[in-house]
Amino acid sequence: MGAAATGSAAERLRARLAPLSDLARVLQLLEYDQETAMPRSGAAARAQQSATISGLLHEGMIHPEIAELLDAAEDEGVDGDDAALVREVRREADKARRVPTDLVREMSMASSAGQDGWARARDDDDFAAFLPFLRHNLELRRQYAACFEVDEPYDALLDDFEPGMRAAEVRAVFGPLRDKLPALIASAGERSPGVPTGPFALGGQRRAVELLLARVGFDRESWLLGESVHPFCVTPGRGDNRMTTRFSESSLESILSCLHEFGHALYEAQIDPALDRTPLGMGVSMSVHESQSRLWEVFVGGSIAFWRGAWPDVREALGSSVQGWGDQPESFVRALMSVQPSLIRVDADPVTYPMHIVLRFELEQAMLAGDLALEDLPGAWNDGMRDLLGVTVPDDRRGVLQDVHWSIGAFGYFPTYALGTLLAAQIWEAARAGLPDLDAQLEAGDLAPLRGWLAEHVHSHGRRLTPREVIRAATGRDLDAGPYLAYARSRAEGSLGQ
Ligand code: ZN
């Protein structure tokens, strides 16, 4: 790393960090290739390559020279982006230093073993087979949390996904949801027509997805769309935005899924280029990231104005399977956005979705505190699904074994999904206030003003600001459930809540 030995400490720190940023981007490229193109027989070699790069990244971050440069930069005095850089790198480095390397290695191994054990247990619908992996992961996360000085162990786990947020704040935000959502779900469900049922020809769906993505701002010069089992996106570099979707003849999930991933990818694409090749040049937290995907999926994808413009071409592309919806988009959009309590989180509509998360958050806290014996987890899950959503769980495969997160030890991740949905409503409210002609622009397919508003108020900051500061900058206040509950209330009253 032939970094300049001269210049300010902040400049030398940047030079030292730039190759690490490159390695992190290469890792994303490997992931994209693995999920979209790699033959299955390449898995072992790819795992080795990814582990090598991860190891280089970790070694690079804990290198003594980074600590020395941080100290020197603070001694010299830094401001602006340099101050933000020092703040972020010190935070990461301090966290990394607190955790013994042996524990890091053990968590990584338990994560791989757990994912494998979970996949088999889920296929066999056998929770007892998953139990030892869950127990081991939980014990390791307890040890991990004990490395930090926090009010409660959950705070240490949450902080890895949502820097600076505490479990008590999540409880304060989720409380009103638990109280108010069940009644709203019941009313909205009664007024929903049910999701469109296929079959929908795959060729037509591919064409529809292309039309919608072109409409929101996907340009072929710098964007790439692939297909994968689980949709995701990566940004291997400036001007290289990649996302995937998946197609099934039995549903139109490809449509909302592509808008979701577009929102994630647009966030990364619109970060200030001045932050490239630094740890500041990425999305600020999981919940802010999820707010950007949900904004496009739920609020653009659920906008009648948007669909008025898009519907003629999309209807033609989808062909005979959607002709019955008529030449106006209203009934189609109502069906697409139907509210219906269901078993599976990833298929849930935006009104029932947060209840899936409230349940997981409550169970995680109980497991971590030792208030819930792990043998009793499936029963607690099934009771929760009945209480919160009114559905009966037929088997663990469609119940407690449905998500990968606990198998890889990712306790504390789930809340960010619901917080992202809530934040999407709050940011959408602010964007509407800032763009008085938004409906006309959505209908005309002129999405540049919305993209520009998001760039200015959310995306460009990268990690220059903290998550809390980004939320305040965009909406003028801290995260609260109010705008989301207003959306859910309007759905309960039969409107689409725009
Ligand atoms: Zn997402």
Order of helices and strands: HHHHHHHHHEEEHHHHHHHHHHH
Question: In percent terms, what proportion of residues is strand?
Answer: under 5%
- Domains counted in the coordinates: how many? 2
> In order across it, which strands form the biggest sheet?
1-3-2
CATH topology of the largest domain: Neurolysin, domain 3
* CATH architecture descriptor of the largest domain: Orthogonal Bundle
Report mean pLDDT, rounded to a whole number.
94
Distance between the termini: 52 Å
How many β-strand stretches? Answer: 3
Describe this entry's structure for a reader.
This protein has 20 helices and 3 strands. The chain has 498 residues and is mainly alpha-helical. A 3-stranded mixed beta sheet has the order 1-3-2. The protein starts with 8 loop residues before the first helix and ends in a 6-residue tail after the last helix. The relative contact order is 0.12. The mean pLDDT is 94. Residues 260, 264, 290, 293 line the site of zinc ion (ZN).
Outline the fold blueprint.
Layout: H1 9-36, H2 43-62, H3 64-76, H4 80-98, H5 101-123, H6 127-145, H7 153-159, H8 167-191, H9 202-216, E1 223-227, E2 233-237, E3 240-245, H10 253-269, H11 286-300, H12 304-318, H13 330-336, H14 353-369, H15 377-389, H16 415-434, H17 438-444, H18 448-459, H19 467-475, H20 482-492
Parallel strand pairs: 1-3
Antiparallel strand pairs: 2-3
The structure holds zinc ion.
Residues 260, 264, 290, 293 line the site of zinc ion (ZN).
